[in-house]
Amino acid sequence: MDFPGRLSFRSEGVTARIVTPDGVETDRPIEIRTHPITGRSCRVTFSRSGEQEAGTRRLPEPPPHADQIDTCPFCPPQRDVKTPRFPQAFYAPGRMVQGRSILFPNLYPYAAYSAVSLFDDRHFVEIGTASLSSYTDCFVNCAAYLDRIRQTDPAAVYMGIAQNHLPSAGGSLLHPHLQVHADRVAPNHLRFLAQRTRKYMEATGRGIFSDILRHEQVDGTRVIGHSGAWVWLAAFAPEGFYEIWGILPSRRSMLTLEDTVWEDLARGVLKAQRFYRSLCRNGYNLGLLAVEQDDSCLELRAVMMVRSNYAAWVRSDHTSFETMLGDMATFNTPEETAARARPFWQP
Length: 347
Description:
By secondary structure, the chain is α+β, with helices and mostly antiparallel strands. It has a single domain (69-317, 332-345), classed as HIT-like (HIT family, subunit A), CATH 3.30.428.10. The protein contains 7 helices and 14 strands. The chain has helices at residues 79-82, 132-152, 188-204, 208-219, 259-278, 320-325, 334-341, and strands at residues 11-19, 25-34, 41-45, 96-98, 101-105, 113-118, 158-165, 177-183, 223-227, 230-234, 241-248, 283-291, 300-307, 328-330. The strands form 2 sheets. It has a 10-stranded antiparallel beta sheet, with helices on both faces. Helix 2 (132-152) crosses helix 5 (259-278).
C-alpha cells in the first residue's frame, strides 16, 4: 500500500468498440474504480445494467424445505438436543439467551471461538420481514458472547459478526441466525484493515472510515440515510452487487455499544434488506468486524451485499472475473444504488 495517509476515490473510463448484430458500430463504456481502502479495482459494465436477470422479475417462492421444522436442528424441540453447549468453565448455563435470541457454539467451528445466534423460533424468515426486536436481541447476544471471550481470553481480539442468508449466500441452514467468531489469529480482511487503519491514523491522526464518511457527505451522491448514529452509503468501488456500508464514526469496539446502538444497526440492516427485496433478491451477506484492543484504529463498519437468488437455474453473481481476475464486475453504479435505496431510509 503506497498511500497510508491518503484516500483516493479514483475512477477512469475505458471503451470497447463493437459492431452489434444489426450492423451498428457502437462504443460500450466501462468504468474502473479503485477502492479507497484496499486499492483493489472494480468494474461497472454499463451495457449490462438494463438486463433483467433470471429469477428477478418477482421475489422467488420460499425454498422447498421452508416448512420442514421437524428436521431443523435450530427449531424447538430439536434445538435442545441437537445443538452443542458451552463448556462449564466458559458459561455454566450452556447457552446464552437474550430476549428471543439463543446463542450456542457452532457445531462446525471456523475459529477458536465460533458460535451461532438464533433470531427466534421461526424456521424461515423472508428477507426484510424479521422483527426489529428479534434482530436487536440477536446482535446484543452476539456482543455479550464476544465480551465473555474478551474476559476469558484477552488475546482473542479479532472478532466478527456475519450472516449468510440462504444457500446462494453460503448459508447451510434456512433457520435465521448470525454467526459470530473470535480468534487470536486474524482473518485476511481483519489483518489488512488493522494494518491499514493504523497506518492511516499514524499519518493523519484521524480514523479512515470517519474521513471516508466526510468525503461522501460532501459528495452526497452515495449517501443513503441514517439509523441513529449509523450512516449508510453505497460503496464507492463495490466488491459485491448493491454493496452498502453502515459506518459508526469514531466507535471502535463492539463490546462497548449500548443496546440502543445495536437496535439502530438492526433498523438499518432491515432497511437494506427491504431495498434488496424491492429488487426481487432473496439472498445477502452481512459482516461487522472489530479488533478488540485498546489501541485499535479500526472504526465499526457494517457491510451488506446482495447475492444471486436462491432459485432453480439462477446464475451466480460471482464469475471468473471475480474469482480469477480479482476485479468485481458489477452492472450498476453505486450512485444508482444509493438513489434507489434512499426511499427505504425515509420515515
